[in-house]
Design brief:
By secondary structure, the protein is an alpha/beta fold. The chain has ten helices and 27 strands. The strands form eight sheets. An eight-stranded parallel barrel has the order 3-6-9-10-11-12-13-14, surrounded by five helices. Helix 6 runs parallel beside helix 8. The protein is globular, with a radius of gyration of 22 Å. The two termini are 27 Å apart. Bound molecules: alpha-L-arabinofuranose.
Length: 499
């Protein structure tokens, strides 16, 4: 067996705080992400609180979801908030034109979303409709959510069941307006963004300065630079009352050129390597984005929100292709850990990230089918990474090695560390190599204990019938005089506390 890789945690060096919001989720009105996945209705035989399924709430509470982005995605730029408030039987039924052309009942609207966010303990990240809506409509929605005084909209909210104003800590100013959000040029978007942020006001006085609503403008996806450039340029020069606090980056892992063509299960080592290699591009994408932002904002006042990311694979056979349902294997768990590590390394700029999407859609945490629920490998990584929420980044030195598969070469090992508020040191180790175990050596620690996630095969998944094929198991090693050695199974994610 190969000698253990020496890993040095530079515990005396403290980096930036890893904002808990990088562990954010995304829930769009898409397929069964909302209807079935979250919302089953008050009269459902599936246990629920006010229509929101309790098994899903309990599972999400365990991963301490910091924020949920809603209602889209592409859906957001066709969403009219008034369709989703008031008596359920009077709500407008429309066609979900983006996703499968199925009926959208609007049964899940603002009150239901806020209730869901509250039940799981997450902050709402609301995306307003810039593409087909108006600044007046968006401003009225934010007033409806946040007004505390006796205004007409605050009274209407109270009449609909919620007297107290809600907090809206994160607000998206459109979504992919270069594409499904209206195919706008960057210049056109910037003019709209200025109008929207100028007129939208948060009326909730409980939102202290540090929690002030942060407005996130649209940036680029993997292929475009102009939005980021124009938005940042406008931000630098702005003198009037509009403002933004963040800008987005969307990037999906497809394992090569668009469109998605890699299968989610039943694949081998070639596919594994192609997808993992592709996901590692995230580091370069953030570096490129950051370089543009640095030109206009060297003090890093504006943050980067990677508010759509994850694996986009081919749909599960037999499902509606517009519902974007795909299985989730150990490869997805590894992919999630690698991206979270990249965000942590860019903690100075990346303050928000939202994996797409939370339930039943793309790289999901949870699958549901009627009353059944199963947790995915990606979910388990999010649970293992809870200690990194708001922990302070600590640099780690290690030789990453090389894994080669055909023409593809990539690192074998990845590592990331942070110190939590209680002073505990946490280390994540990803053995990217799908074929061979590895081991690492650490000096100066008495013990390492935590969890390891691996699987029998490179494409192992959890199903409703076999829900624990990919599940974390505890790991604990004691140090000797020379330090401690930790074994890392092939294709695994390990998170340990070092003492
Ligand atoms: O997450 C699915 C879709 O991907 C979103 O609606 C859109 O913003 C992106 O193109």
């Amino acid at each position: 067996a190969a000698a253990p890789v020496e890993v040095t945690v530079e515990a005396a060096k403290a980096g930036d705080v890893i904002d808990r919001n990088i562990f954010g989720q995304f829930a769009e009105h898409l397929g069964t992400g909302i209807y079935g996945g979250i919302w089953v209705g008050k009269d459902s035989p599936i246990p629920n609180v006010r229509g929101i399924r309790s098994d899903v709430v309990a599972a999400l509470k365990a991963i301490k979801v910091p924020n949920v982005r809603w209602p889209g995605g592409c859906f957001a730029d066709e969403y009219h908030w008034r369709d989703g408030i008031g008596s359920a039987d009077k709500r407008r039924v429309q066609v979900n034109t983006n996703w499968g052309s199925v009926p959208e009942s609007n049964a899940f609207g603002t009150h239901e979303f806020m209730d869901f966010a509250e039940q799981i303990g997450a902050d709402p990240y609301v995306s307003v409709n810039l593409g087909s809506g108006s600044p007046a409509e968006a401003a009225a929605w934010v007033e409806y959510m946040t007004a505390e005084k006796d205004t007409t909209l605050a009274k209407e909210r109270a009449a609909n069941g919620h007297a107290a104003p809600w907090k809206v800590p994160l607000l998206g100013i459109g979504n992919e307006n270069w594409g499904c959000g209206g195919a706008m040029s960057a210049d056109h978007y910037v003019e709209e963004m200025k109008r929207f942020t100028n007129f939208i006001r948060n009326f909730n006085p409980a939102q202290r300065e540090k929690d002030k609503m942060k407005r996130i403008a649209v940036g680029w996806d993997g292929g475009k630079l102009d939005y980021t450039e124009q938005v940042m340029k406008a931000w630098k020069d702005h003198v009037y009352s509009w403002d933004i606090e963040g800008i987005s980056l969307h990037s999906y892992t497809v394992g090569g050129a668009w469109p998605p063509h890699r299968v989610a299960t039943g694949f081998g080592l070639d596919d594994y390597a192609a997808v993992i290699k592709d996901t590692l591009r995230m580091d370069q994408l953030i570096t490129t984005q950051t370089a543009i932002m640095d030109k206009y904002d060297p003090a890093k006042k504006v943050f980067l929100a990677v508010d759509e990311w994850g694996a986009w694979l081919t749909p599960t056979p037999g499902t509606n292709p517009g519902f974007l349902m795909q299985q989730n294997s150990i490869r997805d768990g590894i992919l999630a850990a690698l991206n979270l590590n990249i965000f942590a390394r860019h903690a100075d700029r990346v303050k928000v990230a939202n994996i797409a999407q939370m339930i039943n859609v793309l790289q999901a945490m949870i699958f549901t089918d009627g009353a059944k629920m199963v947790l995915t490998p990606t979910y388990h990584v999010y649970r293992m990474y809870v200690p990194f929420q708001d922990a302070r980044f600590v640099p780690v030195k290690f030789a990453a090695g090389e894994y080669v598969r055909g023409a593809i070469s990539m690192p074998k090992l990845d590592a990331m560390a942070a110190r939590d508020a209680q002073g505990h040191l946490w280390l994540s180790l990803v053995n990217i190599d799908p074929e061979a175990p590895a081991s690492i050596h650490l000096s100066g620690y008495k013990s390492a204990s935590g969890d390891v996630l691996t699987a029998p095969k490179v494409d192992s998944v959890n199903t409703f019938d076999a829900p624990s094929v990919v599940a974390p198991r505890p790991v604990s090693v004691k140090g000797k005089a020379g330090g401690l050695t930790l074994d890392l199974p092939a294709r695994s994610v390990t998170v340990v506390r070092l003492d």
